[in-house]
Amino acid sequence: MSSPYASTHSQVGELYAGHHHWLLGWLYRRLECHQQAADLAQDTFVRLLDGLRPKVRSAFLLSQPDGLTYPQIAGQLGVSLSSVQQYMAQAFAHCDQALSP
Fold first, then answer.
1. Taking the model in full, what pTM does it have?
2. Among 52, 68, 78, 92, who pairs with 62 as Cys (CB 3.0-4.6 Å)?
């Protein structure tokens, strides 16, 4: 059985993958600094997650752009695996709401 947030997970991944490259290029052309362009592109993506508690946002960012597994995230954040699962469910629900028309 698939997760109720599998569709949202896919949409967020597609949103990031589909827009990160052009956004990064656009920012770089204006700033002429790879580091600043990368920071601003990441900040733009993070704004999708405004309103989430810090650990929920951190777990989501470690999972999505960084590609860590849930056990790795649990270790990095110093929380249980079930906490990471709860954080991710909250983040996907938030993204689902933000992406809904």
1. 0.66
2. 68
